[in-house]
Amino acid sequence: MKAAYITHYGQEQLTLGQLPKPSVTQPKQVLVRVLKASVNPVDLKIQAGKLRPLLKLPMPLILGNDYVGIVEAIGTAVTNFKVGQKVLGRISKQSIGTFCDYLVDQEANLALLPPNLDLKQASALPLVGLTAYQALFDKMQAKRGQSILIHAGAGAVGSILVQLAKMQGLTVITTASQRNHAWLTTLGADQVIDYRYNDFTKVCPPVDYVFDTIGKETLLQSFEVVKPGCKVVSVAGLPDAKFAKAYGLNLIWQGLFKLASHKITRASNKADAEYEFLFMRPDGLQLQRLAELVVTGRLQIRVAKEYPFEEIQAACDYVATGHADGKVIIKLTD
Ligand SMILES: NC(=O)c1ccc[n+]([C@@H]2O[C@H](COP(=O)([O-])OP(=O)(O)OC[C@H]3O[C@@H](n4cnc5c(N)ncnc54)[C@H](OP(=O)(O)O)[C@@H]3O)[C@@H](O)[C@H]2O)c1
C-alpha cells in the first residue's frame, strides 16, 4: 500500500513509498481503508523526535493521527462496527500512521460517520476536537458563568474550544491576529486580543481558566491572568512530574520533567493556581458527540486546503508555518 513515512527521527522530508498492508490480529481491532487524513502539528513534532519520551514508535514510521475511511475487516469481538461502514478516528497513540491506504485501529477509538458529514470535515475533527473537548470537560470541568482565556483561538484546537466553551455558557476571551478577529466573533468569542500588538496580561481580565497552545513565555505569563485557586491547562508547555507519574513514566523521567518544568511550577505556586498538561487521548464516544455537533451545524471546523497524497510534503510544510488558516487535509483515495 502507499504510505508517507520516516525511517529515522529528524528526517526532514517524508518518504513516499510502498509498505505492507496491515491486517487485523486482535479481537477488538478494525481494518480501515483510509479516504482522507489530516495533518496536525504533532505529526511534525513526532517526525522531529520530540515525543520520544512519551511514545515508543517503531521505524519505518508512517505519520498521521486522524482519518476518515471505510471498514474493510473487523476482529472477532468487534460489536459496534460492520464492514462497509464509514468511520472516523484518532488512531491509537502507540501505533500511529494514517498517511497510508490502510490502517488497523482499536474499535474504542472509532466513531460512525454521521450521514451528510463532509469527509474533509470528518478527517479534520478527531485530534483537535478531542483535545478541546477533553480540556474543557475532563481537565477543567468548566461550568456556566465561568470565564476562559484561549490562546490561539484561530488555531484548529482553539477555534473548537471557543465554540464548545460558548455552548457551555462561559465568557470567552481569545488571542488571534487581526485577520481572524471577525471570524472568532462569529464563533462567539466575547473579546479577541491581537497578540501581535497587545500584551494579553494587560488587557485580559482575571479568568477561571487559561487554555494554552503556545507554551514558553505565553504559558508562564498566563499565570498572571488566572484567578487564585483556578487552572491553566496547556497542550504545548512542558509536562510536569505529576503528568509524568500519571502517564506511568519511571522515576528518572519524573525527575527530568520536574526539573524542566520548574519555572511553570514556580509561576503556578506564585499565582496560587493549578497547572495541568494535557496529552489528549483517542475516545470514540466523545468523538461521536463531536461529529454530531458538526453535522448539525453547531460546531464549525475551518478547512484550509486539501492536498493530494503526492503533495503531502507541501501540506506538512504549510502546517509547519504555524499560521495555517484551518485544517490541512490529505486525500488518499476517492
Ligand atoms: N498535547 C496535546 O495532546 C495536543 C493536542 C493538540 C494540539 N497540540 C498542540 O497545540 C498546538 C496548536 O495546535 P493546532 O492544531 O490548533 O495548531 P494550528 O491550527 O496549526 O495553529 C495555527 C494557528 O495558531 C495561531 N497562532 C500562532 N501563533 C500564535 C500566537 N503566538 N498567539 C496566538 N495565536 C497564534 C495562528 O493564528 P494567526 O495566523 O492569526 O497568528 C494560526 O491560526 C500545537 O503546538 C499542537 O502540537 C497538543
Describe the model.
- 32% of the residues lie in helices and 26% in strands.
- The protein is α/β, with parallel strands linked by helices and 334 residues long.
- The protein folds into two domains: 2-125 and 301-331, Quinone Oxidoreductase, Chain A, domain 1 (Alpha-Beta Complex); 128-277, Rossmann fold.
- Helix 4 (156-167) links the parallel strand 9 (147-150) and strand 10.
- Helix 3 (126-140) packs across helix 4.
- The longest helix has 15 residues, at 126-140.
- The relative contact order is 0.16.
- The model has no long low-confidence stretch (mean pLDDT 97).
- Bound molecules: NADP nicotinamide-adenine-dinucleotide phosphate.
- NADP nicotinamide-adenine-dinucleotide phosphate (NAP) binds next to helix 1, helix 3, helix 4 and strand 10.
- NADP nicotinamide-adenine-dinucleotide phosphate binds next to helix 1, helix 3, helix 4 and strand 10.
Measured by DSSP, the beta-strand proportion falls in 25-35%
User: How much helicity do the residues have?
Assistant: 25-40%
Q: What is the highest CATH level, the class of the largest domain?
A: Alpha Beta
Bound molecules: NADP nicotinamide-adenine-dinucleotide phosphate
> From the 3D coordinates, which CATH architecture of the largest domain would you assign?
Alpha-Beta Complex
CATH homologous superfamily grouping of the largest domain? Medium-chain alcohol dehydrogenases, catalytic domain
| Rg (CA only) | 20 Å
Biggest β-sheet: count, sense, barrel? 7 strands, mixed
In total, the number of domains comes to 2
The chain-level structural class is alpha/beta
